[in-house]
Amino acid sequence: MSGGETLQIAVLLVNLGTPDAPTPAAVRRYLAEFLSDPRVIETPRVLWWPILHGVILRVRPQRSAELYRKIWTDAGSPLLVNTRQQAQALEDALSQRLADPVPVEFAMRYGSPSVGEILRKLKLADVRRLLVLPMYPQYAAATTGSVFDAVARELSRWRRVPETRFVHAYHDDSDYIGALAASVREHWSAHGRAERLLLSFHGLPARCVRAGDPYERHCLETARLLADELSLDDDTWAMSFQSRVGREPWLRPYTDVLLGEWARSGIQRVQALCPGFAADCLETLEEIAIRNRDDFVEAGGEALEYIPALNARADHIAFLARLVAQHMQGWPAAVRHD
Question: Is this model's pTM higher than 0.85 or not?
Answer without folding.
Answer: yes
